[in-house]
Amino acid sequence: xxxxxxxxxxxxxxxxxxxxxxxxxxQALLVSYCNLAGINQNNGCLPDADKISQFCDAxxxxxxxxxxxxxDIIAGNDSAGEAxxxxxxxxxxxxxxxxxxxxxxFADAVTAEQASHFDAALAQLGETxxxxxxxxxxxxxxxxxxxx
Length: 148
Known about the structure:
This protein has helices at residues 2-12, 17-39, 49-75, 79-106, 112-115, 118-147. It is mainly alpha-helical. The longest helix has 30 residues, at 118-147.
C-alpha cells in the first residue's frame, strides 16, 4: 500500500493542494497501520490501547475528509466526474462501513473476546483500506486527466 501511495504521489503530487494534503493524511494513516500491525507480530499481546485509539482517530479523520471534503472536489463538476463518483460511491461506502465497524469495536476499551480477534480484524481492515485507496485513486486520476 505504501508503494502504491508513492506511485500516486509521484504521478499526481503537487497539482492540487487538497489532494496533496489528503495523500499526506493517507501516508500518516498507513504508517500508523503498519506500526500497529508490527507491534502485535507473534507475541499474542494486544497493542497499547492508546496506539489503537490514535490509529482509530486517524482512520476516522481520513474517512471524514474523503466523504466531506475531497470526493466532491475531485469528482469535478463535469458529468463524467459525477458519473464516476456515482459508480464508485457504493463501493466506497462499503469500505467506510467496514472501517467504522473496526473503529466501533476497537477504539475504546477492548474486551478479552475482542482482543482475541484483533489481528484478524486488523488484517481485514488492511485489505479494506487497500480496496478503498484504489477506488480513491480512480477519482484522483479523473481530476488530473480533466484539469490538464
